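Example 3.2
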Amino acid sequence: MPIIPIDSFDHPGLNLYAGLTEPQLRARTEGDNGIFIVESPKVINVALNAGYEPVSMLTEEKHITGDAAPLIARCPDIPVYTGPRELLARLTGYTLTRGVLCAMRRPKLPTLQSICADARRIAVIHAVTDSTNIGAIFRSAAALGVDAILVTQDSCDPLCRRSVRVSMGSVFLVPWTWVPFGYHEMLKEMGIRTAAMALSDQSISLDDPVLKAEPRLAVIMGTEGDGLPAHAIAASDYTVRIPMSHQVDSLNVAAAAALAFWELRIN
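Structure, written as tokens:
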């Protein structure tokens, strides 16, 4: 496929990078044809290594023989649009990180049952709406041995551009899927206990030995402002708090997730 220089925004393939918002990319062709955008050569390579299918690429001119060259050689059958940095920034609305974007097809997501069948440590992201936090949680989960991630449908899309970039491609490494709010019962049926991260008079400390002794445990992380709703806490087997000093009552959800994943990891 030839490299396609652009000098305007009229080429039909460019609407993936400018004409459609991320929700539109996801919603207009949900399923086999849904699209998401991956940013930077390193993260694009992680996605390709994980088996994700590229659709097209957008790169600054100077990267054709630089950072984008190995990607272009690896994906010879897709269109590669290129132009000067200023033009691409006007097209996308932001300056490209490392000068390269890649549009990829959304995969068909697995079921909760399939990704949790052999999982010992699971993360549940419940109504977390900040893409930076989503990406950071995925990165910590991948680094600290979480086997699967469940995401409630009112959370931010893990495959949105910023989440993917912040995770450094970790969203491609840990199996994940969307789940309904009835996930507690679904996990219970599989013999998986649940631990809600929340401040409560009934909460136990994160370093309580009973938690690490659980052979299969799902750690539930709540939204940035209000935390987990009461029904999610009530349905959990444990309510867990992180011991803190200086009258600090809570941490950012991504920081709390990293601490929980480390403390409850299985060696």
